[in-house]
Amino acid sequence: MSDSKLRFWLRAVWLVAYVLMVVSMLNNLFRLNTDAIAYMRVAEYWSVGNFDLAVNGYWGPLLSLLMVPFLWIGVDPLISGKLVMLISAAVFFHGSQFLVRSVGLGLLDELIMALVLALTLPSWMTEQMTPDLLVSGLAIYAIGYGISPEWLDSRGRTVFSGLLWGFAYLAKAVALPLGLITSLSLALFWRFGRAKKRYMAWRQLVVSIVFFAVVSLPLIVILSLKYGHVTFSTSGPIAHAIVGPGNDQPAPHPFGNTVYQPKSGRLTAWEEPSKMAYDYWSPFESVEKLNHQFFLIGKNVKTIFKFLAAFDGVGLFLSGFGVGTLVFGLSLFSRKPFIKNWFNQRWRWLIIPVACLSAIYLPVYVLSSDQRYFYLFLPLLLILSFGLLISHYKNSIRIKFALAALFILPIFLERRSEDIAGKLAMDLAFRMEKAGHKSPIVGSTFFSDEGHRLGLYVAWHLEQPWHGDVWSFPPSSGLTVLAKNKARAEAYRQSGAIYTIAINETKWAMYLDSNPGFNNVTDTLGEQNLFQLYEIIK
Q1: Which of 6, 158, 250, 504 is the most buried (most CB within 10 A)?
Q2: 159 and 211 in contact (C-beta within 8 Å)?
Q3: Which among 167, 38, 149, 44 has a CA at the least distance from the CA of 104?
Q4: Is 482 exposed, middle or buried (0-12, 13-18, 19+ CB in 10 A)?
Q5: Are 338 and 350 in contact (CB under 8 A)?
Q6: pLDDT at residue 190 greater than cutoff 90
Q7: What pLDDT sits at residue 353?
Q8: How far is CA 90 from CA 32, 96, 136, 357, 369, in A?
Q9: Are 117 and 408 in contact (CB under 8 A)?
């Protein structure tokens, strides 16, 4: 196929991609997640110049800052967040194609990449409102500039590489170590792979790191002053804290398992969890804790290994081994002369960001549901696949399209749960406000296995404080179900909140009906059969 035809089909795929992404956004306008509440609240603080509440070490500022222009022109916070997720998907979409060109692959490979992402991104961008797509897209662009042959000669590409890594850090803190290690690794590859211009590698690396620092250092300084010690993020220590010894699964965050009154001006402590009571620990405190750290790393290695295979149809069926796993392993080895060919085939260099991102998450926690942390894997593994095919087959067009089909397959086979929690929360909030029940709320009212906190969502829609919850008790407590209900109810009564919500006909709703400290006011909401609303009697 001629280049002109390939470009035509590429533009056609772009059009299809944007249509699908916009339709997906419109179909999921009211979809909410717990992290989204925090990002939208922080965006509102930025929009009015409330820097005391906006600046925090847990949530990267960039996703929220991108919402600010929309808020300034009167766009609803939820719609603003959805538009920013659309922008994030666009950055990921075009960045991945840019990376294809940067490693020296052809228009056909770019077209196949666009086709795979056109069918994948509409689902990813609406699953949750988080910065994972944005940080991955910015990292892809940064890698693309760093791996391009013009990197050694062009000061502009070097500057852009550093700036993009800096902005990726502002999106999510994981990009700081990822960017530093990847930049250093790529510079080393240029140093040993290009005999004529190897002396340029270190100079270009320094320039890139300087501009990386220009973007990232101001936030690091601000956070360090805020917390009283050198800090580039508090998310890493917190992620490490909740998987300490004794926790087979991550411990619940205090914001969701503690009753409290949020700081004045905040809706929930989840907007800034850094100063809550986490049980921080170090593997060097004792032999037992060191052993636990090794156990945790071993467990995470297995999980991340599965993620290498999670983006293709083979891995979906074999659960742990797939095309991604295979191409990652094969990319480590090239034909003789091994070293020369390996450095000349720049697409092989992409194993570095794959390995680096994996290593960064090893000491903390990675759940099988955390695929969004590794969105970066998909375009990198797809490019590695293209490179291997080109290096072994002269005519690999049909194989490439078959490969693309395997990477698209999970989108059609994985069942995505229909999220109605967001719509139900909005409807319930409307009913409560109409009935004059616009006051602080306590209790999560978990609505599904996905962990939707309907109580928090309703509080956000009402713009009222959410006072947390008590739902998880340590096994060592030995409390009966009745004792747990009593402790939970008493915590609610002491919380300072006015209302709590229960799901209709559950045991918890029945208990609240029998407790004189709670007055059922559900009849004031009009006709609905899903929830019970209780006024807390002091």
Answers
A1: 158
A2: yes
A3: 149
A4: exposed
A5: no
A6: no
A7: 96
A8: 21, 10, 11, 22, 24
A9: no
By C-alpha distance, which of 453, 30, 496 is closest to 253? Answer: 453
Say how far apart CA 213 and CA 216 lie, in whole Å.
5
Q: Name the pLDDT band for 197 (thresholds 50, 70, 90).
A: low
Condensed to tens digits (0 to 9), the pLDDT of residues 275-285 reads 898 999 999 99
Give the three-state DSSP class for 518: strand
Judged by average pLDDT, the poorest of 41-55, 82-96, 106-120, 328-342 is 328-342
Distance CA 250, CA 247 (A): 6
Q: Give the pair of three-digit tokens for residue 448.
A: 């599904």
pLDDT of residue 194: 66
Instruction: Compute the Cα dihedral for 297, 303, 307, 312 and give only its sign.
Output: positive
Per-residue burial over 295-324, b = 16 or more CB atoms within 10 Å of its CB, e = otherwise? ebeeebeebbbbbbbbbbbbbbeeeeebbb
Q: Name the residue with tokens 């270009």.
A: 204
Nearest of 239, 252, 279, 244 to residue 473 by alpha carbon: 252
Q: Tell me: cis bond preceding 353? Omega within 30 of 0 counts.
A: no
Q: Is the pLDDT of residue 195 over 60?
A: no
* Alpha-carbon span 440 to 424, nearest angstrom: 18
The model's pLDDT over 110-162, given as tens digits with 9 standing for 90+, comes to 999 999 999 999 999 999 999 999 999 999 999 999 999 888 888 889 999 99
CA max distance for the chain:
83
Handedness of CA 474, 476, 481, 484 (dihedral sign): negative
Compute CA 520 distance to the chain's CA centroid, rounded to the nearest angstrom. Answer: 38
Backbone phi and psi for residue 520, each to the nearest 5 degrees, phi listed first:
-75, 115
CA distance 236 to 361: 9
Amino acid at 161: S
Cα separation, 70 vs 136, whole angstroms: 23
Task: Give pLDDT, residue 162.
Answer: 96
Q: Which amino acid is present at 146?
A: G
**CA 205 to chain CA centroid, nearest Å:** 28
Q: What is the mean pLDDT of residues 25-52?
A: 96
| CA angle at 389 for the pair 185 and 10, rounded to the nearest 5° | 90
Strands (E), 267-400: none
- For the chain, the residue count is 538
3-state secondary structure 215-278: HHHHHHHHHHHHHCCCCCCCHHHHHHHCCCCCCCCCCCCHHHHCECCCCCCCCCHHHCHHHCCC
Where does the pLDDT of residue 449 fall: very low under 50, low under 70, confident under 90, or very high at 90 and above?
A: low
What is the rounded distance in angstroms from the CA atom of residue 285 to the CA atom of residue 158? Answer: 42
